[in-house]
Write a structure and sequence with these properties.
8-stranded mixed β-sheet, binds aspartic acid, about 35% helix
């Protein structure tokens, strides 16, 4: 689908005014158009799984764990949930297989790990974490099962990942010539009790994507970024547009060099995404103050939790 920036109004949700440096977790599970499959049952399922993800990550933050731990815990829950486009239930390529990407970045040290083209990793975010913690590199493409096992990554065969719903989406995309069918990439950003930030994103890419295609999610600075000086960001939407806009890092630069508020910085970056005919959304946790959830698509599944409460939006 091709659109211009003019028909893409933005929606912005700020989290309740958190303690300036208090713990905060914000998550998303994809942005796009309301699907006709968005029945009340499905919506309840989505909201229930968003809450489970928030609970899992926030419980760690409350116990004094790191933002990185919280981000990974929240993402694992969403990767295991079949309705989201990551891990179990990831989107299928034009060849009918999964090709999953993930990235994890910590704001205190600027360390980052990423992987793309994963076909057997139960929780791709754990691969990103292993790359970050166990190698001197930043990104791996299609790491082999032996390597993954040596990193302690849990593996599954292809039947685990492929759901009937994703098969149906692929059939529809291929029969109506619709290249882009999206929804459900997941991400989490957090601030821990020490004031450290972390960001993670995990995706199956876009239904019916060409074999080998990689979007913004695993690319540091494009779909995922964290710096303690500024913000932690995770993006979702038409990856090509987020890459061209270097969207996540741009939010950080606008805050650092332009003195913009995180919400204004994100709105400007999203305008740039729209100029590249992209739509989608971003979640942001800043070094200080409330978190931001912003999207220029019809909807974004997202939520937040802090000492001031929690909210889920779908
Ligand atoms: N950004 C992801 C990609 O382009 C897809 C999505 O967020 O829906 O791979």
């Amino acid at each position: 689908m091709t659109r211009t920036e003019h028909d893409l109004p933005q929606s912005t949700i700020e989290t309740a005014d958190a303690d300036p440096n208090g713990i905060l977790l914000v998550i998303h599970a994809g942005a796009g158009e309301y699907s006709r499959k968005n029945t009340p049952d499905r919506r309840a399922q989505v909201e229930g799984d968003l809450r489970k993800a928030l609970d899992a990550g926030y419980a760690l933050l409350e116990r004094g764990a790191t933002a990185e731990d919280a981000v990974c815990a929240a993402i694992r829950v969403m990767e295991d949930a079949p309705e989201f486009n990551a891990g179990h239930g990831a989107a299928l390529t034009s060849e009918g297989i999964v090709s999953m990407d993930a990235c994890l970045m910590t704001g205190a040290d600027g360390e980052v790990g990423a992987a793309c083209g994963l076909t057997t990793s139960k929780n791709p975010i754990e691969v990103a974490r292993a790359v970050k913690e166990r190698t001197k590199h930043v990104m791996f493409a299609e790491p082999g099962d032996e390597e993954l096992r040596s990193w302690g990554v849990e593996l599954r065969d292809s039947s685990y990942f492929i759901t009937d719903a994703r098969r149906e989406s692929l059939r529809e995309a291929q029969s109506n010539g619709d290249e882009w069918e999206k929804h459900g990439t997941i991400g989490a950003v957090a601030r821990d009790a020490q004031g450290n930030l972390a960001a993670g994103t995990s995706t199956g890419g876009i239904t019916n994507q060409m074999p080998g295609r990689v979007g913004d999610s695993p690319l540091p600075g494009c779909g995922t970024y964290a710096s303690n000086e500024t913000v932690a960001v995770s993006c979702t939407g038409i990856g090509e547009a987020f890459v061209k806009e270097v969207a996540a890092h741009q939010v950080s630069d606008r805050v650092l060099f332009g003195g913009q508020k995180p919400a204004d910085a994100a709105a400007a970056a999203l305008d740039g995404v729209a100029r590249h005919n992209g739509d989608g959304g971003m979640i942001i946790v800043p070094a200080e103050g409330p978190g931001v959830m912003i999207f220029n698509s019809e909807m974004m599944n997202c939520g937040w939790m802090s000492p001031r409460g929690s909210h889920v939006h779908s």
